[in-house]
Write a structure and sequence with these properties.
- By secondary structure, the protein is α+β, with helices and mostly antiparallel strands.
- About 55% of the residues lie in helices and about 20% in strands.
- It has 3 helices and 3 strands.
- A 3-stranded antiparallel sheet has the order 1-2-3.
- The longest helix has about 30 residues, at about 55-85.
- About 10% of the residues are buried.
Length: about 100
């Protein structure tokens, strides 16, 4: 049992490192947001045209981009964990399966 826990911990750490290095980008109307696989924001770009459209436009577009990037990161994260840890009993529910 302890051997399995050690293997799971090692696999989990490998997946986390891979997620930190992977990037997901979402763009919408002059706004671009990039997050890593841990859903940490790594880059935001806003065009001059988008800036000129006002606060409400910016808020809506930023939310849309951030949601899109995070959705892609989450889907990738679930696949990575399932591929690495999916063979372990009782984890299917935790991994979106």
């Amino acid at each position: 049992m302890l051997k399995e826990v050690g293997q799971m911990k090692s696999k989990f750490q490998d997946v986390q490192k891979n997620l930190k290095d992977k990037e997901f980008k979402s763009e919408d109307s002059g706004i671009s947001i990039t997050v890593n696989g841990l859903m940490e924001v790594v880059d935001i770009k806003i065009s001059d045209e988008a800036l000129s459209k006002g606060r409400q436009y910016l808020e809506t577009s930023i939310k849309k981009c951030l949601s899109g990037a995070n959705r892609s990161a989450k889907e990738f994260m679930q696949k990575e964990f399932k591929a690495s840890l999916g063979g372990m009993p009782g984890l299917d529910g935790l991994l979106g399966g």
